[in-house]
Amino acid sequence: MDHIQLLEGIKAHPYTTIVAASVVNARITAVFVGAFVAQGYINPFIAYIIFIVMGISGDMLYYFFGRIGHLGGVLLIKNSWQNKLSQLDDKWRKNFPKAILIGKTTAGSKPVIFVAGVAKMPLLKFLSIIVPCTLVLYLLYMSIGYFFGQWIL
Description:
Order of helices and strands: HHHHHH
Number of strands: 0
Structural class: mainly alpha
Distance between the termini: 16 Å
């Protein structure tokens, strides 16, 4: 999907296109949607809710894949590695908010979220970090598109 198809799709079917394009690359889609919001094509509140739901549900999916993957990983790890992994686990729990913040603002969020599931991060702690991060980041991406959209479209 190139950017011309994305732009035409957003004009014709804005919310369906937002959902479909968010699966591929939600950040760039949010910037484009912000530009369309500035031109009055899209309701910003509905678009923002779509991005939040898609972002959090995608993060939850990777988190649960990590939780499920942890079961198989435990069986494959040798006993000599158990001590090393427990030390890593302690450091991970301490620095998880920083890792998520860096991962969500760069392109590396999915492996970090997967590792959170593998490390058995409590779900409520995971959500208490992911939800505010997602709220702020998609607001930022849509704002970039809103204010600088005339150079995009």
